[in-house]
Design goal:
The chain is α/β, with parallel strands linked by helices. It has two domains: 9-183 and 221-245, Rossmann fold; 192-217 and 249-289 and 306-322, UDP-galactose 4-epimerase, domain 1, CATH 3.90.25.10. Helix content is 36%, strand content 18%. It is built from nine helices and 13 strands. The strands form four sheets. A seven-stranded parallel β-sheet has the order 3-2-1-4-5-6-11, with helices on both faces. Strands 7-10 form a two-stranded parallel sheet. Helix 1 (18-29) links the parallel strand 1 and strand 2. The termini are far apart. The mean pLDDT is 93.
């Protein structure tokens, strides 16, 4: 983008979800008008509760798979943040159609609505580090090739990237693609931290860990992620821009288990490893070693405030506090 986009109203798909609701909060805090479109399959109204009386927020309960209703819901939105997706990577090995429909088909329907209405100036998409597959270059830069995802989830995100790129060039809007590392924090209902907390709630002495425990990846706290998304919106220069979003270091699964146990006040927890598949992976399609090169975003002024261990520890605390504050049924 030659200049930062000017905008007055934003559409956030998946805005009631984990990352989406944090993004909505940040946008509203800047005095912007935000329309959330969510089917509430993963998101919850609780995630938006703190802004439920904000006149700048409109929430639409709808599904991107219902393509005929999308143009009506887009209204006069200048910017589209597309976060709606099925976030569970492990599902892709069991039900690939789920990721095809909820990720690829949903994105295509949204792009078609944008093509027909022609309202939005920019389309921002949260992709994933999994599009890189088993990268041979670590840290992995944005221009790494070839991109060979090893999960259907990663393939679906890469397919979305290709569709967005083609539509942006063909129909004249700007596109910003964010390849996210593992984002952690409160409101997240998926991932290794939540899995460990749930298991340790059931058994405080024993913890089953998928794989061999050496899976090593980058973890970024959601607050750092939101700052990256907002900076990317303001600073992107090219017609189609790709940004890696992650921490600058890694942490392995065994260390995450130790951190979670510590934050739950548990001692002498016995870890049992399943051994995993394909050389110690947690499941088929699990990338065992991931670290993104984030120098491109850093050159624009973004620096993560927490490293991977700090992000995991803070996220664990966030989730535990969130659970304590949940109302009883």
């Amino acid at each position: 983008m030659t200049n930062a986009p000017t905008y007055s109203k934003l559409l956030v798909t998946g805005g009631a979800g984990f990352i989406g609701s944090h993004l909505v909060n940040a946008l509203l805090s800047r005095g912007l008008t935000v329309c959330v479109l969510d089917n509430f399959s993963n998101g919850t109204s609780t995630n938006l509760k703190q802004n439920q009386l904000n006149r700048n927020l409109k929430v639409i309960h709808d599904d991107l798979l219902e393509k005929n209703s999308i143009p009506n819901n887009m209204g006069d939105c200048d910017i589209i943040f597309h976060l709606a997706a099925n976030p569970e990577v492990r599902v892709s090995s069991i039900s690939p159609e789920t990721h095809y429909r909820q990720n690829v088909e949903a994105t295509f329907n949204l792009l078609e609505a944008l093509r027909k209405t022609g309202n939005a100036e920019a389309f921002l998409f949260t992709s994933s580090s999994t599009v890189c597959g088993e990268a041979k270059v670590i840290p992995t830069p944005e221009d790494y090739a070839p991109l060979e995802p090893i999960s259907v989830y990663g393939a679906s995100k890469l397919a979305c990237e290709a569709l967005i790129t083609a539509y942006a060039h063909t129909y004249g809007f700007k596109a910003v693609i964010f390849r996210l590392a593992n984002i952690v924090g409160c409101r997240n209902q998926h991932g290794v931290i939540n899995d460990f907390i749930r298991k340790l709630r059931d058994d405080r002495r024993n913890l089953e860990i998928l794989g061999d425990g050496t899976q090593t990846k980058s973890y970024l706290h959601v607050t750092d992620c939101i700052e990256a998304l907002l900076l990317g919106l303001e600073k992107a220069r090219d017609h189609v821009e790709v940004f890696n979003v992650g921490s600058e270091d890694q942490v392995n699964v065994k260390t995450i288990a130790q951190i979670v146990a510590e934050e739950m006040g548990l001692e002498n927890v016995k870890f049992s490893f399943t051994g995993g598949v394909d050389g110690g992976r947690g499941w088929r399609g699990d990338v065992k070693n991931m670290l993104l090169d984030v120098n491109k975003l850093k050159s624009l002024g973004w620096v993560p405030k927490m490293n991977s261990r700090e992000a995991v520890r803070q996220a664990t605390r966030d989730i535990i506090i969130e659970e304590r504050n949940e109302p009883l049924d």
